[in-house]
Amino acid sequence: MVLEFTEAGIYCPAADAYIDPWRPVPRALITHGHSDHARPGHGTYLATDAAAPVIRHRLGDIRIETTQYGVEHRMGDATISFHPAGHVPGSAQIRVEVGGEVWVASGDYKTIDDGLSEPFEPVRCHTFITESTFGLPIYDWPDQEILQRDLNAWWAGCVAEGKRAVLGVYALGKAQRIMRLLDPSIGPILTHGAVEATNKVLRGQGQILPETIHVTDGVDAKSHPNAIVLAPPSALGSAWMKRFGTVSTGFASGWMRLRGVRRRRAADRGFVVSDHADWKGLNWAIAQTGAERVFVTHGYTAQFSKWLSEQGYEAGVVETEFGGESLDDVEEAEVTAP
Amino acid sequence: MKAFAALFTALDQTTKTSVKTAALAEYFSTAPEDDRIWTIALLSGRRPRRAITTTKLREWAAEHAGIPLWLFEACYPVVGDLSETIALVLPEPKTRIEKSLSGWIATLRGLDNAEDDVRKAAILEAWDGLPPIERFVFNKLITGGWRMGVSQKLMTRALAKATGIEEAELTHRLMGDWSPDRVSWDSLIEAPDPTADLSRPYPFYLAYQVDGEPHELGDVSDWLAERKWDGIRGQLILRGGERYLWSRGEELMTDRFPEFAQLVDFLPPGTVMDGEVLAYDREAETPLSFNKLQPRIGRKTVPKKLLAEAPCILMAYDLLEWQGADLRRTPLVDRRAILQDALGALPADLPIRLSPRVEAETWDDLANARAISREIGAEGLMLKRLSAPYLAGRKKGDWWKWKVDPLTIDAVMIYAQAGSGRRATLYTDFTFAVWNGNDLVPFTKAYSGLTDAEFREITAWVRKNTTDRFGPVRAVIPHHVFEIAFEGIQASPRHKSGVALRFPRMARWRKDKPLNEANTLEDLNAMLAQYG
Hints:
heterodimer, A: alpha/beta, 2 domains, globular, B: alpha+beta, DNA ligase i, domain 1, D-amino Acid Aminotransferase, Chain A, domain 1, 3 domains, 7-stranded antiparallel beta sheet
């Protein structure tokens, strides 16, 4: 096998390297900087140039080498290359070729161009390892233009009613994607420290992001009356928010597609947006690879692999420790304030 | 249906009562009258008959979405709602059909007696012509399961705001056996003829549980104390030579209790009483257990044998109408005096009793009376202010229930199942067990009593500690002990443990209790012996 599924993670024997391992290993190939994929304690790391700064920022003093997309690296008998996954800036699918057989591990991906991340590029392969976070036909993302219209309408509505719009977003990727959709004529963007730290890293590597104002102790309900606030989900409902007075809370996640989740979150508004592929995206991506065999990792694994089997793929489920856009993050947000 | 879907969205996007009321009031002021009437009907639980089985809907939706039925079925538990699942899997609409709420309802009714292929064509056409939210609302109209996060009370408040008619008056107008087919906006809301509907009940007055010490209610002599009987609340209406018995859920249950027919001959027309329907041993003058009453509730008509096994009476405690006059503004002390006179003159073999007053000089007397509630088959005491009128709905101040503390037992969680609807992604339905030697014997399920945060916590734990799966049910490592509270216990040969509990719920998550300190089957049997 080109790649094997082990206790420590997805392993390539020919290269003696692991892809996004969850136990400490000598050599790790990292698809992107989210904490369930880039973990501490590995001997060496290899990631894309654009993913590395966030990984360094999060993991501190590590030995990391970087690569451009599409550059082939020879490791033992394996040829390794990184290809855009469209998930967050710098995110990659990892292509591994051994003796003419090609496998691709997709990490997390989405197939639409979010205007921020390098857009997803299909890579032809024999075996494709796909996520299935949203691998059911109920997940169908609205166009980004509709999202943009709804977001700005909500924000403008909040301003008109004298309420502060506070939007819960993941600090890496989602936050910056949303920032670029916001209409600067409505007001400024205020950011929670977790979001601002990521902004700083991304700006440092040349990403053009809208201007933001970091919420520090001096900022209260009166300063910047027209502003929208971007904060990680865990800050919603926490003491940190008290400074803003009357708020309208929004939450931006693929899970907002479900009315039950939307209602239980008790956020005033739910916006359906995800950095993971929806049902159509997953199916499209898999078809593009031309793969005969598909391994399904985190998400609706059993259902999605059964579906793929019926579509004629040789499909199987692989247990991993990836979280994806975890529903738990959404659910836990209220109880794990920072 | 655009306006109705917009109303639905507005209600769905807020948890604030004031915003909901405003949205509803706006709708009631602007929507066409037929649509308003249907909206009132839907929000007060009057649903159009289900025109199409859910089995058919599932098949058609899967087929139309181009997915196998098993995949549709796999989506359903994730979404937790059939109408929403259908709306989410279907492809984008191709056209845009503009039709009012009542128009769509008429369309659906037109399909009542149609052939299957006609129905299917009509449903698919609707699905293809409606944007997602309207599609969801349309599916709700078909399946009839309707919850919009709006209580009847809130709806009535909005209606009062829109019409300027007093809320209590509207509550009364909306009671009883009306249907959108037979009423107009005018005849129901604006200018109803009070005599048009002899069966129309008054809104029930509902009590809160005492939230402090009862003596804080003031002088005990200002209060009437009665037993809180364990039956079903009923409003018995005698008008125009007919009788009608309404449940608190506004269900007409006249035919389920034929014994009350004879009361028409003994009490004057224009009599309306509030009381508790009880299975009752008239020889011993004691109520029978709620278990005896249960088979009578489920049936539309009653076989003779059951009538003999579980004879029922009305334990009357209030008089709302007497000789055709509405007495609700009369103080309780006077209402009760009339009731007492009226019932005192009746032969003892009639199925009606006056709920006895629990005599007391002090609050301590009442506390002592409450302490023996379980022994005499009552749930506690009711405390009613003697000077109070009969109000509508749940109001604080004049009526209090002072229930006995629930029975409790510490049990081990052994199975978990996801909830539905709003709780579809959480594990909320649990099976609990007690020790029998080294075995854990399941004895009850419970799904309420925890906070949302606790449900999230236990859900995360369940995901990580599953040992086995049986369909939607997960077996988990026996680890967590919960205090289960319940109102009663009965022997039950259908349950493995031999007992069935009444109203079981999770009172507390006993994180402090080790597994081996949970209660035993022996403890449960001792409770059965004492209270069963």
